Predict the 3D structure of the following.
Amino acid sequence: MLVRIYLYSIIITPKFAMNDPNHYANMYNANEKNPKKIRVLDSTLREGEQHPGVSFTIKQRIQIAWMLDYFGVDQIEISPVVSKDHFEATKTIIKQGLKADIVSHGRALKEDIDISLKCDAKWTAAYLGISDIHLKDKLRITREEALKRAVETVEYAKSHGLKIRFTVEDGSRAEPKFLLEVCKAIEDAGVDRISLPDTVGIMRPIGMYNFVQSVRKEINVPLDAHVHNDIGLALANAFAACDGGADQIHTTIDGIGERTGIPALAETAVALTYLYKSPNDFRLDMLMDLSRLIEQYTSIKPYDSKPIVGSTAYKHKAGTHLAAILRNPAAYEPIPPRVVGNRRRIVFGELAGKTGAAYLMSLLGLKEDENGAKEVAAGLKNLRMGDLIEIPLEDRLERKIINDKKDIKERKKND
């Protein structure tokens, strides 16, 4: 009976499903046959510098821009209005002729647009708070005045040959009718993109979807998603925004930014590539290098369990996990570490189990046998010393372990 069930499962299971461990998960993800491209704007040089304690030099900004461009982001945002250093960095980066658009960011004021023009920018970005709390307590202007300023800013930029993205700051908390009124007015004025932000990270994914979709139904201009991580939902909200009609996500390297930051570039790029099947051309193997660069320049180290780039993202410890990993890493790794520039590591200690103990014995040159492995596993558990040793498991070594085990089994059969 069991043999018949096994043979039946082989017959009905498509070959591609057997070769792709994520096949059935992707069915639930409901990927489209022709997925749309979701673009990435990286704001490490603007939003990232708003992270407490972060301040890049001109040379550092230029290097970060070069690396982001080589990685494959669509736009790079920087704010020349902040200081002379930022102005010089912006002007120099624009001169480099990078593939990515360099977006010169400022307030919804003509004088800030003039600064973008002095940098020889082709793209500019302006922001203006439109929620009642921003209008009343920050800007101290009326809705009518805000609408007039938004339109005049867009018209001024367009009259000087610039492409402009306009951010309706705190739009998720703005009165919906006024939000649409502003978006329609700046669309009529010629705006090239509109950024819909969840400025204080207050949205649920379904809320972000509804927010963006309400604008998408009325506006034909391309939409950006700029979402904050105050309650930990930034990445989910960014993709909910794309499901609702946005086609560009704002990120920073390691997610640094004001307060708790915005979506991390690594997580966004990997999700776009593997979950959304977006036809981007990212060099994912650069992700660890980008993270280390920001750590070097800011002393902000990503927490150990941070997805993709964290030091424990590809560490395996529990005995049942080790047993599976040593046979097929895909059992507990949705994406191979080499693809994103990370490394697989095996952690030995009281949770290693029999298979982990046997592997440790092989590394130490000890004779492998089942009873010996059980004794070592029991000894590690009884020591109660937690994690004792950590060893990188390279693909070459992994293949050797698997082949050695096959050879041992074949010898036993022949004996």
In short: Residues 59 and 299 are 17 Å apart (CA to CA).
